[in-house]
Amino acid sequence: MAFKYAIALTGGIATGKSTVASLLALNGMRVIDADTISHEILDASSEWVRENFGDEFIEGSRVDRAKLGTLVFSDKEAKKKLEDFLHPKIRAEIERRSKKQDSFKFPYLIDIPLFFENGAYDIKESVVVYVPKDIQLERFMKRNGYSKEESLRRIESQMDIEEKRKRATWIIDNSKDLKHLQRECEEFVEKIKAKYLEKK
After folding, report:
1. Dihedrals phi, psi of 175, to nearest 5 degrees
2. Cβ neighbours for 89, distance < 8 A, ≥ 6 positions apart
3. Which GO terms of the molecular function aspect are on file (predicted)?
4. What is the CA radius of gyration of the chain?
5. Do β-strands 31-33 and 58-59 pair in parallel, antiparallel, or remain unpaired?
6. C-alpha distances in Å from residue 5, one per residue of 22, 37, 46, 100, 117
7. 79 carries a ligand binding annotation
8. Would you say residue 177 has pLDDT above 70?
């Protein structure tokens, strides 16, 4: 059975989850990245994307993720079609990697952007990377160059960050500077180590 030692790492768009994943890895935590896995599977499925969405979503031999993203965030049917195709494949790969990590008998993280939304993973504990909504919007617009309207549409396609905060086992606060975030990550790793050592 997979996920025995797994902790879900999640958050909202532009809350800084990827940065946190990197910082936690630097502090010795092992991380399975669902986003990376989904990109690998999507690129390996470019023919399926071409057949189902059209040539304009292919650039060379790879999927134009930005263009496909614009489509699925504005078309529920297209979003469902893509998710129905991708999610079982992503899950199977995450499960395979999780079983390997479980063999080390030590906690590890699985970076799952839509962990609470999909409820597809039987993982008991979670850590949410949190920023207030106004900062989330500001960072998303700055990072992606989208309009306020498009940014809000994408942010609101996910569960509200305040609700994720309520559901989390742990919170990593990314509302301040990088130094603060580094401290938050270090403290989280210490908590995990302490909890694991207690169990031993």
Report:
1. -90, -5
2. 41, 45
3. ATP binding; dephospho-CoA kinase activity
4. 18
5. unpaired
6. 19, 20, 34, 11, 21
7. no
8. yes
Q: Which tens digits make up the pLDDT trace of 47-70?
A: 999 999 999 999 988 899 999 998
Query: What tens digit of pLDDT does each residue of 99-144 get?
Result: 999 999 889 999 998 899 988 899 999 999 999 999 999 999 999 8
List, as one string, the DSSP characters of 104-153. T-S-EEEE-TTHHHH--S---EEEEEE--HHHHHHHHHHHH---HHHHHH
**36 marked as part of a ligand binding site:** no
Confirm or deny that 60 is annotated as ligand binding.
Answer: no
> Do the first three CATH levels of 1-29+107-194 and 35-106 match, i.e. the same topology?
yes
Class of domain 1-29+107-194: alpha beta
Q: Which CATH superfamily is domain 35-106 in?
A: P-loop containing nucleotide triphosphate hydrolases (3.40.50.300)
Domain coordinates in residue numbering, the chain? 1-29+107-194, 35-106
Q: What is the predicted pLDDT for the residue at 199?
A: 60
Residue with tokens 């990314």: 174
Q: Does the annotation list 4 as a binding residue?
A: no
Looking at the DSSP assignment, which residues form a beta bridge with residue 11?
129
19: annotated binding-site residue? yes
Stated length of the chain: 200
Residue 99 in marked binding region: no
How far is 18 from 21, CA to CA, in rounded Å? 5
